[in-house]
Amino acid sequence: MDKSNHAHIAKAYNEYYGNGLYANRYPKANPNVTDRVLAHTAPLTETSNVLDYGCGNGRYLQQVLEHTLARTIGFDVSEVAIQQAKNQLQPYLFRVSLFSSRNTLNRALLHTSKVDVALLLFGVLAHIEGKENRREVLSWLFEHLKSGYGHLLVSVPNRLRRFWWLQLKVWLLGSPKTKEGICYERGGDSQKISLYYHLYTCKELIEELEDVGFVIRRVSAESFFPEKWVIRYSWLARLDWMLCEILPAWIGYGILVEARRPL
Question: I want to staple 178 with a disulfide (CB 3.0 to 4.6 A). Which of 121, 165, 174, 237 is the partner?
Answer without folding.
Answer: 174
